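Thread: Newbie trying to understand structure tokens

Hi all, I'm a second-year student working on a class project, and my supervisor (Dr. K.) asked me to get a predicted structure for one chain before our next meeting. I've only ever worked with sequences, so writing a 3D structure as a token string is new to me. If someone could post the tokens and maybe explain what I'm looking at, I'd be very grateful. Here's the chain:
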Amino acid sequence: MKVVITGTSRGIGRACALRYLEEGHEVIGIDLMPATIAQAKGSAASDTPYANYKHYIADITGELPEIDGVEILVNNAGVQEGGDEIRVNLEGTIAVTEKYGLTPSIRSIVFMASSSASNGAEFPRYAASKGGVVAYMKNVALRVAQYGATCNSISAGGVRTELNRHILESPDLMEQCLDETLLHRWAEPEEIADLCWFLTCVNRSMTGQDLLIDNGEQLRSNFIW
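---
Reply by user tm_fold:
Sure, no problem. This is what the structure looks like when written as tokens:
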């Protein structure tokens, strides 16, 4: 299948791209940064070259490349703070989806939302942008149903990515974060990629749903009598 993924240069987006490539799909990445997945032999980006990977350097809030026949769309690109959360996480995601996802060729769409979308934690604009992503996901699910396509979102809690490096490199901060989860752990990017692949390539009946994967953080409750 032809898969478009935004934000493929690192973290969850890169893990997702590698998961689909390993399954033999054609993957097109869109990112502000250069590719970190090799597209041909001799590239320094990676030890393993993938001839079926193509990379576009583009801003999802600006001019997007022309890509026809998209079958799977993974909306992953986003920012955590800095003031552009609504413009990038919500408006940029909407622009990408309207361009590539609302076509007869589409088979499945996944949005990377956040546990913040349901609990309101983290930065205000970030939580608001991800809450908007979940609401927009449901709207898209209604519209792509005519093509027999599924549309869902993944709301992750803590994930071991470069965006959380300052926490990962601080034993005290990391332990505080882990103590807020039932399983005393954060997810790996590959776990999110596996779930994304399942939703798009195995799932046929689940649509319009937001899946929370936070190691039980929102269930954490200290009962005092």
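A couple of things are worth pointing out once you decode it. The beta strands are 2-6, 26-31, 53-57, 72-75, 108-112, 150-156, 210-213. The chain has a mean pLDDT of 94. Feel free to ask follow-ups in this thread.
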